Amino acid sequence: xxxxxxxxxxxxxxxxxxxxxxxxxxxxxxxxxxxxxxxxxxxxxxxxxxxxxxxxxxxxxxxxxxxxxxxxxxxxxxxxxxxxxxxxxxxxxxxxxxxxxxxxxxxxxxxxxxxxxxxxxxxxxxxxxxxxxxxxxxxxxxxxxxxxxxxxxxxxxxxxxxxxxxxxxxxxxxxxxxxxxxxxxxxxxxxxxxxxxxxxxxxxxxxxxxxxxxxxxxxxxxxxxxxxxxxxxxxxxxxxxxxxxxxxxxxxxxxxxxxxxxxxxxxxxxxxxxxxxxxxxxxxxxxxxxxxxxxxxxxxxxxxxxxxxxxxxxxxxxxxxxxxxxxxxxxxxxxxxxxxxxxxxxxxxxxxxxxxxxxxxxxxxxxxxxxxxxxxxxxxxxxxxxxxxxxxxxxxxxxxxxxxxxxxxxxxxxxxxxxxxxxxxxxxxxxxxxxxxxxxxxxxxxxxxxxxxxxxxxxxxxxxxxxxxxxxxxxxxxxxxxxxxxxxxxxxxxxxxxxxxxxxxxxxxxxxxxxxxxxxxxxxxxxxxxxxxxxxxxxxxxxxxxxxxxxxxxxxxxxxxxxxxxxxxxxxxxxxxxxxxxxxxxxxxxxxxxxxxxxxxxxxxxxxxxxxxxxxxxxxxxxxxxxxxxxxxxxxxxxxxxxxxxxxxxxxxxxxxxxxxxxxxxxxxxxxxxxxxxxxxxxxxxxxxxxxxxxxxxxxxxxxx
Length: 705
Ligand SMILES: Nc1nc2c(c(=O)[nH]1)N[C@H]1C(S)=C(S)[C@@H](COP(=O)(O)OP(=O)(O)OC[C@H]3O[C@@H](n4cnc5c(=O)[nH]c(N)nc54)[C@H](O)[C@@H]3O)O[C@H]1N2
Ligand SMILES: Nc1nc2c(c(=O)[nH]1)N[C@H]1C(S)=C(S)[C@@H](COP(=O)(O)OP(=O)(O)OC[C@H]3O[C@@H](n4cnc5c(=O)[nH]c(N)nc54)[C@H](O)[C@@H]3O)O[C@H]1N2
Ligand code: SF4
Ligand SMILES: [Mo]
What we know:
about 700 residues, Dimethylsulfoxide Reductase, domain 2, Barwin-like endoglucanases
């Protein structure tokens, strides 16, 4: 591998450098990027990485084409047409920065030093998982400005909060050691699409005789090999888990020694589990009572079990309690004591840093205040709101957020000064007053932390920025200068920030040096898992044990025991709504797309074909809908048109549309998020995309393209 003489030196014209896939995908692949004549020509998975094992998924392996995609934004733009029309003129960076800083200074003059900054709203999604360009660059800048802070909740926050109530931390299980499991449960997760390297650990387990159970209303790829496929009613997973606990305890299948040594509140749990005999669970989940009991027995007959719960499973109004409850299962059987066993749930908070100090909380000129990103629509156009400017980077809210009807009204406000920093002209960028061109991962250096196999990964700059593209850090530094901020942190470049992060004093990462990262590209952290804590004899909960009963939850007004809470929209909670909208609409990930990234990429869109609604044959027949027909999926929040795919892969009563697409891919330009609800989940302010009742009908004539 040819190396640059120093990290700060410009990239070499011919080299192979360490990169890291920036996507919000558990694998965080280590990549070898081949550069020839200053051009990125090929990427390959790093064979030395224990996760990547030399291969990348198809979403990323074609990345060189996308880096040089003719649709990449190459210079700043200023809006000339109506908001949303996508009509712009080219301007220089100087003009763009002057326009942005000028408007922001005016807002601060108009509304004062406290209210002014709070009329300016940042929005960032998970465009890059880099610590430099994803996390710190923007947060420092907006803290210095004194804007409202963004709480990034959309993806996995509810489940993480619930998991923590049981375990005290969220890094319980090493999924890359799950090859040792004798029973794997893919519980509301779709690894063949969303975390492909897990498949190799599943293979390892199966080659040694391990079994697989899939729990998902949708039959995922790979389910055909499973010993059991359980298709519960959406949002009823906690009832299923409690039914399993009922059988495990009634039949005396629990590990008494583990329960006595490592858990708190077993007697109370026993009483709770009595409330969930399999016959009752059948009524709540639609899973036959015998299957609930069989699943429980299979699970408890084996100490080495690995449950993988995906973030998709907890995007429900009861998602926090669902994870809180599922994480209790391995504490009954003692699975937590075995490496690679217990529950894995992707969680981005295992990186051991003092986020507040790195994010520059101390730079604030005013007291902190926060907003939940899922409520962007309310912030922009809700009653009593006074947001005057929106700055979007690393995100595409016009595709991925719910309550699109309301959000689009906010984005279309002529008096909202909107800036979008992007690689391509997304649906959100079309609403901007100023669009700034962003670099790709290959045009910047960064340090990433994997929330799958806890490790630090180095992304070296492979090529020079294309056109006039600038990274998030460069852009915030420019804006800081224009705003008159003199703080030293706004003079830092990528490598300064990387070095600052590596200086963090923490046992998990103290052994990792920049030299080591430059040599190998990645280095494992020493984060502890539940099996380590079993050896040490203490969990980071108030009782020091895994908590079946949680005083902390009781103090916060939650049920202190694992519980099944009804969804906000369901036949029981909203019977009238249910009569009008008797189908659960879930919107999980698509195989070839990565959230709404690459909506401009024809090849990708073609491989996914078009946005569909998968309907069970019984539900389709009831509505006279045939495979391939255009359907209208609707509720009181809004509607979208989707092509029907009639298949028994989805259970009756559920409609599934995979992937977040761009407006242009829908026949009437409206995406599925026009129907999704904007209420927060029960914990952590998480999202509830999948707690969504709808009706489906044949689309009115003349609607198809
Ligand atoms: N190919 C691809 N990979 C991705 C992404 C992508 O868009 N495409 N997105 C990335 C991101 S940001 C994330 S957060 C992860 C998400 O990773 P996953 O969690 O694997 O993704 P999803 O497909 O959203 O949801 C997983 C499954 O949950 C199921 N599900 C929905 N509701 C319920 C329920 O109530 N109970 C049960 N048991 N199952 C339910 C869905 O049918 C779906 O199969 O993937 C990452 N990787
Ligand atoms: N209905 C429904 N909606 C969902 C979900 C669902 O399951 N159902 N899943 C949700 C989930 S899990 C997530 S995580 C969110 C994802 O929400 P987002 O993160 O907002 O969505 P992405 O499509 O990943 O958009 C990221 C954007 O960042 C840009 N980008 C990439 N790198 C950079 C960079 O270095 N600088 C700048 N300035 N921009 C960059 C990309 O071009 C891309 O357009 O979507 C959510 N939306
Ligand atoms: S999207 Fe995920 S699996 Fe694919 S290359 Fe990136 S990190 Fe690896
Ligand atoms: Mo996500």
